[in-house]
Design a protein that fits this description.
By secondary structure, the protein is an alpha/beta fold. The chain is built from 18 helices and 27 strands. It has three domains: 236 residues, Aminohydrolase, N-terminal nucleophile (Ntn) domain (Glutamine Phosphoribosylpyrophosphate, subunit 1, domain 1), CATH 3.60.20.10; 204 residues, Glucose-6-phosphate isomerase like protein, domain 1 (Rossmann fold); 147 residues, 3-Layer(aba) Sandwich (Rossmann fold), CATH 3.40.50. Bound molecules: fructose -6-phosphate.
């Protein structure tokens, strides 16, 4: 939800800011802008539309200066427009502000400021910050930001420049992410580290209620009380190439194809001989043995990984477990206490609802472990223990590699708990570990079948589009799965909805007869996850029921399945043989690719689908 970046140093600020914004564009892309200090004045350009519109404008009207701030927006208050785009200036254009978050008390503040004579130019909540800082500015930008920040309610990460102090950028944060990129003779502010990776791998993660001042050679962090705090510098392992497309036409495709390697890396890091290790978990084995129940809480794709996690925990750890969406969990009165292990799953580690759920769980005395991808993110830092997925930066808005990485962590963590709590026999543990180790190579093998752009899934997508047009745009998708592949049915449908804008629903196949079967006629394409499993025969019955009503079927089957061939299925996607428990890791891949190709067929913006943003830092 919006990306912000700030720069001070010897380079041309415009170039650094645009590069940073291009890395942050996944956070929002309805408008963008930059401002820099040049010849003791604030120069600004901002435009409605994707970042390329701003690029084009700056090509003809470049901004000079070596100190500046930039923003890419996902609208909350005020429609996408040039006026509502950030940065926002004060009355006299002496200062400029970019903001990520929501100022909840903005209308009250705005009324007061208008009465005092301030002139507003936009409908945004952010503009109150510019005018507040203007009001409090008496020659010291840092002090003015402190004073303004104390009055703000809601969430914010801001970066501010002032023409009278051209030697600094000041920032502040409350519940929206902000990091400092520490360079040599230059420093950066950004919503996340990918924006600064081109220049430095040294970052400082800011905490809530901190105000930061960066100059060319110095980084000063202060609490709201004015006390200076020393912050550790973290050296990132991420590589800038991970934030680039590397020859793929889209980030999503690149990230799908990275999954074999990522799974291998995850298993390699955690499996030592016959043991699974979580060395940095910070929660001791004795404590992990005592929990009576587990609750998994997450949003979107991470929620689907969490749903699969519930099946794993119940099957292997024999511990009651439920999975909840963060937005539901936080607003009811969930039964969690000191005997509950709460697992928060979040790629970004910044999702507002998941962060609030985490705090709710802690308030109730639960121990919280988070599964996060982004190092040093808010959720990671506020959890009692964190397990990083180390999947590298995920740039495409639709989550793919983070999902399978989360699943892999769930497998490892549940097996780890099962061994600790002795809930499965040693022989089963050894067998499962052996099977799990096969997955990365099988994923790689599966992916290699789709290397060419003329592959079977691309052809199915083409067929679907033809059919969709023939059916006067009435065709849509249903995804059916059972047991541990039921979450994949939800995830397959979510992928298709978000990037192809085709109506899609995921359902547990056993629920078909309880309602959704009424939808079946010649319109829907039904993806049936029919891999070898304890419920395989049940799925074959579902397939027959759909066929009897003229539905079109894509079956996801285990390779070599002879029986399915006799079911008169329209299209088959094969996945390599693996124990049923681990099949979700392989089933997920072709479902991601199918959504990708359908979206491509319809000519949509695959990496930046409409109305979405990668990191949902507002409610
Ligand atoms: C779907 C997708 C979203 C996220 C959800 C949670 O492709 O990306 O549904 O999974 O917004 O985000 P995180 O995992 O960052 O908490």
């Amino acid at each position: 939800m919006c990306g912000i970046v700030g720069y001070i140093g010897p380079r041309k600020a415009q170039d650094v800011l645009l590069k940073g914004l291009s890395r942050l564009e996944y956070r929002g892309y309805d408008s963008a802008g930059i401002a820099a200090i040049s010849s003791h004045a604030v120069e600004m350009v901002k435009r409605k539309g994707k970042l390329k519109v701003l690029y084009e404008e700056l090509e003809t009207h470049p901004i000079k200066g070596n100190v500046g701030i930039g923003h890419t927006r996902w609208a909350t208050h005020g429609v996408p427009s040039d006026a509502n785009a950030h940065p926002h200036l004060d009355c006299k254009a002496r200062l400029a502000v970019v903001h990520n978050g929501i100022i909840e008390n903005y209308s009250e503040l705005k009324d007061g400021l208008i009465k005092e004579g301030h002139k507003f130019r936009s409908e945004t909540d952010t503009e109150v910050i510019s005018h507040l800082i203007e009001k409090f500015y008496h020659g010291n930008l840092e002090a003015a930001v402190h004073k303004a920040a104390r009055l703000l309610k809601g969430t914010y990460a801001i970066a501010v420049i002032h023409k009278d102090e051209p030697d600094k950028v000041v920032g502040a944060r409350l519940d929206s992410p902000l990091i400092v990129g520490v360079g040599k003779g230059e420093n950066f502010l950004a919503s996340d580290a990918t924006a600064v990776l081109d220049y430095t791998k040294n970052v400082i993660y800011l905490d809530n209620n901190q105000v930061i001042t960066i100059t060319r050679n110095k980084v000063t962090v202060k609490e709201m009380s004015g006390r200076t705090v020393r912050k550790p510098v973290t050296r990132l392992k991420w590589d800038v190439s991970q934030a680039e497309k590397g020859g793929y036409s889209h980030f999503m495709l690149k990230e799908i194809f990275e999954q074999g390697d990522i799974l291998a890396k995850i298993l390699d890091e955690r499996i030592k001989g016959q043991k699974i290790v979580f060395e940095q978990l910070k929660i001791r084995g004795v404590a992990l043995k005592k929990f009576k129940r587990a609750a998994i809480v997450a949003c979107g794709t991470a929620y689907h990984a969490g749903l699969a996690g519930k099946y794993m925990i119940e099957e292997l750890v024999k511990m009651p477990c439920w999975t909840d969406t963060s937005s539901e969990f936080r607003y009811r009165d969930p039964i969690v206490d000191k005997d509950t292990l709460v697992i928060i799953v979040s790629q970004s580690g910044e999702t507002a609802d998941s962060l609030a759920a985490l705090r709710e769980a802690k308030k109730k005395g639960a121990t919280v472990v988070s599964i996060c991808n982004v190092l040093g993110s808010s959720i990671a830092r506020e959890s009692d223990g964190v397990i990083y997925t180390h999947a590298g930066p995920e740039i495409a808005v639709a989550s793919t590699k983070a999902y399978t990485a989360q699943l892999a962590i769930f497998y490892l963590f549940t097996l780890y708990l099962a061994a600790l709590r002795k809930t499965i026999p040693n022989s089963r543990y050894a067998y499962l570990l052996k099977e799990l180790k096969k997955v990365p190579a099988l994923a790689q093998q599966l992916l290699s079948e789709y290397k060419s752009e003329y592959n079977s899934l691309a052809a199915y997508a083409q067929e679907f589009k033809r059919y969709y047009i023939k059916q006067h745009n009435k065709s849509y998708f249903l995804y059916l799965g059972r047991n541990i592949n039921y979450p994949n049915a939800l995830e397959g449908a979510l992928k298709l909805k978000e990037i192809a804008y085709i109506s899609a629903e995921g359902y547990p196949a056993g629920e078909m007869k309880h309602g959704p079967i009424a939808l079946i006629d010649e319109n829907p394409w039904v993806v049936c996850i029919a891999t070898q499993s304890a419920t395989y025969d049940k799925m074959l019955s579902n397939i027959q029921e759909i066929k009897a009503r003229n539905g079109i079927i894509i079956a996801v089957a285990t390779e070599g399945d002879k029986e399915l061939i006799h079911q008169n299925i329209n299209y088959i996607i094969e996945i390599p043989k693996i124990d049923e428990l681990f099949s979700p890791l392989l089933v997920a891949i072709p479902l991601q690719l199918l959504a990708y190709y359908v979206s491509k067929e319809f000519g949509h913006d695959i990496d930046q689908p409409r109305n979405l943003a990668k990191s949902v830092t507002v409610e």
